[in-house]
Amino acid sequence: MRRMLFVALTLLGLVAVGCSSGDEKDDIPADAQRLTVSFGDALQFDPPTLTVQAGRPVVLTVKNVGGTDHDFAVRDMPASDVKSKVEGGHGHGGAGVVVGHPRAKGEVTVRFTPTAPGTYEFYCSVTGHKDAGMKGTLTVT
Questions:
Q1: Per-residue confidence of the chain (141 residues) as pLDDT tens digits?
Q2: pTM over 0.90
Q3: Which of 11, 20, 70, 126 is paired with 4 by a 20 to 30 Å CA distance?
Q4: Which CATH number is associated with domain 29-140?
């Protein structure tokens, strides 16, 4: 009897986990624009330019392929549904900043929907990295 109860509860738990929508990936719209940007110890983004469409959700994978602390930040870009992801070391600007900050040798996913066409600078907000040239251009069409 105990064994049957254990099996029943185990199966019920598996069904509950399988039906849960706790995974962020489940709610990504089919028309999302998927991009990847990476950086390493050379203080540069790859690619240095990104282009997206206004009004369509963006799913951006931010990869740190090096061993140094870096991030991806865009300030003052009109956007909705911003879901920044910070796993790395230092603080970041507050409202109005889209941030992806993976740990060294890691990656994070950032989500946002740009709402206005324009050209916006993305950069590494770690002290001195932007001034050393670690920046790029995000064009919203």
A1: 555 544 444 444 434 444 433 445 567 888 899 999 999 999 999 999 999 999 999 999 999 999 988 999 999 899 998 888 887 666 565 566 888 989 999 999 999 999 999 999 999 998 999 999 999 999 999
A2: no
A3: 20
A4: 2.60.40.420
Report long-range pairs for 133-138 (Cβ below 8 Å, ≥24 apart): 133/43, 133/44, 134/39, 134/43, 134/44, 134/45, 134/70, 135/45, 136/37, 136/45, 136/47, 136/48, 136/49, 136/50, 137/48, 137/49, 137/50, 138/49, 138/50, 138/51, 138/52, 138/74, 138/77
Residue 97, CB-side half-sphere exposure with 13 Å CA sphere: 16
